[in-house]
Design a protein that fits this description.
By secondary structure, this protein is α+β, with helices and mostly antiparallel strands. The protein is built from four helices and three strands. The protein has two domains: 58 residues, no CATH class; 51 residues. A hairpin with a 2-residue loop joins strand 1 and strand 2.
Length: 131
């Protein structure tokens, strides 16, 4: 459970959240909505321990696991789907195995030079993306 007790949060002189009393039970699914600048990102920064409350308490379970996606991501040469899929080790292994099998078939059928060139180009891009 996550508990906010008389929680307040400022960014500079601006008061974003004031006197918040809230308990979020394990298993609940919540959405946080609001206009730009109202404190959504600051709230998540507090949950991640990146900023501290200006007043009150924020109690988090010791074994809490949070996942987040940064608002700003670095510019990458690859499409977003390739970046995301690159983080899945099992998928990456399966794709490499598939590409190897395609290469074997291509070599056996006489298209090996074309497939090997494509494979090397793809492997170089993946090496740069994972480095």
């Amino acid at each position: 459970m996550i508990a906010f007790r008389h929680f307040a949060l400022r960014r500079g002189a601006r008061l974003l959240l004031s006197d918040i009393d809230l308990v979020i039970q394990s298993g609940w699914r919540l959405g946080v909505v609001g206009r730009n600048g109202c404190g959504k990102s600051s709230l998540f920064a507090a949950l991640q321990g990146q900023v501290e409350a200006d007043a009150g308490e924020l109690d988090l379970p010791a074994r809490l696991r949070l996942a987040s996606v940064a608002q700003e991501t670095p510019a990458l040469p690859d499409p977003a789907i390739e970046y995301v899929m690159g983080g899945d080790e099992e998928l990456a292994i399966a794709l490499r195995m598939f590409a190897f099998a395609v290469t074997l078939v291509a070599v056996a059928t006489g298209f090996g030079a074309v497939v090997l060139t494509l494979w090397r180009t793809r492997a170089k891009k993946n090496a740069v993306a994972t480095a």
